[in-house]
Description:
Largest sheet: 4 strands, antiparallel
CATH class of the largest domain: Mainly Beta
CATH architecture of the largest domain: Sandwich
Main location: cytoplasm
Low-confidence stretches: none
InterPro entries: cNMP-bd_dom (IPR000595), cNMP-bd_dom_sf (IPR018490), HTH_CRP (IPR012318), RmlC-like_jellyroll (IPR014710), WH-like_DNA-bd_sf (IPR036388), WH_DNA-bd_sf (IPR036390)
Protein name: CRP-like protein Clp
Pfam families: cNMP_binding, HTH_Crp_2
Order of helices and strands: HHEEEEEEEEHHHEHHEEH
Distance between the termini: 24 Å
Mean pLDDT: 93
Organism: Lysobacter hankyongensis
Amino acid sequence: MAGSCLIEKIGYHIPLSATDAALLARLEEQEEPFRARATVRDIGQPADRLFVVRAGWFFSYMILPNGGRQIMHIHYPGDIVGIPDVAFARTSAALAAATPGRLCPFPKSALDEVFIRSPRLSALLFSIGMVEHAVLADRIRIISRMGAEARVTHFLLEVVSRLRVTRRDLQGHFELPLSQGMIGDAIGLTNVYVSRALKRMQGDGLIRKHAHGIDLLDEDEMKKRVDFEDRHFKIDTSWFPGS
């Protein structure tokens, strides 16, 4: 399927057969556009659909008892959204658009054909779910143990590592279409603290800010400061069926 970010992402990790590509293409047969800041679905709605991100950035979030927002995951082109809710009848998190974008909805029941016809794809989807769990665990660690600058540093490294899965030639510059408030909601900071952290990082020569993007000027130093591990770079596929 030409131009499929999902197939490109999956193909980053394992070679795809014609059957695999056809199974994935069926998950993108329908498409819905969304404007920036639009709510796709709320917490507690029936968890009967998943989504492939076709274009744009989306995010899953929860509302805290004090009315604040905690962003759990950022979703990029090629991601399948809703895997954590497969085990539940109703959604545990809301989904919204960070930018204008397009989602391809498909019924949860469509996964059965993938599981039946492609054990390798099934193993990879399971592994990608575990990667999302590890990324979230990393973020919990930095929120509970690190200061504002380290949190922002880790978040930027997390974003660029995920973008490189479908943009393999991506160097240190990338667009960041998230407000400072959204970044803060992902790492437990106010937008003021995010702004201060970004200014200090610029002063240290680690980054350069643009109108809608970021240059990582010393990625190695950034990784060293926060003990960053790229969870997206390589998935262990040695145990997959047929390996």
